[in-house]
Write a structure and sequence with these properties.
alpha+beta, EC 2.1.1.77, SAM-dependent_MTases_sf, Methyltr_grasp, Protein-L-isoaspartate O-methyltransferase, PCMT
Length: 407
Amino acid sequence: MTTPADLETDAVRLRAAMAGNLAARGFLDDPGWRAAVEAVPRHRFVPGFYLPAEDGNDGRGLTRWQPVTATLDHGRWLAAAYSDATLITQFDGDEPDWENPAERHGGAPTSSSTLPSLVVRMWADAEVREGHTVLEIGTGTGYSTALACERLGSAGVTSIEVDGRRLEQAASALHGCGYAPTLAVADGLYGYWPEAPFDRVVAACSFRAVPPALVAQTRPGGKILLTLSGWLYGYARVLLTVAGDGTAEGRLLGGTVSFMSARVHAAPAFGNPGHWAAGLPGEARVARHGPERITAATEDAFHLRFLVQSAVPDAQLATVGDVVHLVDVVSGSAATLTPDSDGDGDGGGGWRVREGGPVRLWESVERVLDAYDAAGRPGPETFTLCVHDGGQHLRHPRLPCLPLPSP
């Protein structure tokens, strides 16, 4: 039987090993953040979580998610708590009963403890320093909040969470570990005016565009680090510097980081793809680009998915069999891409496209892809996001200005 003393001894050893691993991989160059990782007991913030079953899906294409707690499997629980992995703590907004947890089949994760390497990377990328006041959007389990408190002191940290049940559990863990940040149930879209202004704003969820309230609540010269996303599940991170006139500007950051969408910005349900396809014209044209340009498991495709969202911000993508569907619930437009057995077009054996509605969805995507190729396929670090009274735009010296959706 594991005693509390044994647990804490094992946890200290595992924390030191995790910190050493993160440092060896280049995530803990700052001694202050390494000390925080070595000090904060992550297991106290994840009493229960889900891991995918080793045998994969359930035969229906749905991932089998197994609950993991100290009671069910102490060794697996503690080892996972100190692994560099994201631990899913909630699906579809439903709070699990960790006293009697049940296996899940499929579902959309809505809360998690983000992998530690990404947590410390976010704090480091935001250029957080001693003496800064920080707003964290998305308390989640509270582990990231605890690292900030350990590094900055609790008085400088404000963390908000839209889910009151999540925040209650995080608050209990934080206070149990001796941390006392300002905590509030609030929607990150609107920041948290009572504690503003802030030197740094860091979001652990993604937004379709930069919420204006975050710019207004950041001191001139302060920085905002957040992830931008869209309904095509393209992502980009940006570090903005706020100016005295209320505008903000900053470069996109590299890498393939993604976060769950802020719930207010999540993609809406679009119904049955077959219903949308039934109303399309019968004639199909040869596609200049195939869907693999934005769906492949590559950094280039990851970046392109984000860029093409500027052209079709309300489009969603679904694959049924070998047919790729684009659906826009706002305009009523739709498109399908079907493999072309004649081998014409771009990508694999080529593709044929049918599209209808006020917006030619795939034609709009192809225009972005054409411009991207003509510009030499520039990486994310070459794009600048400008936030001003006239909207939010991605700018690049060799590409047309790309607007973000209205926030």
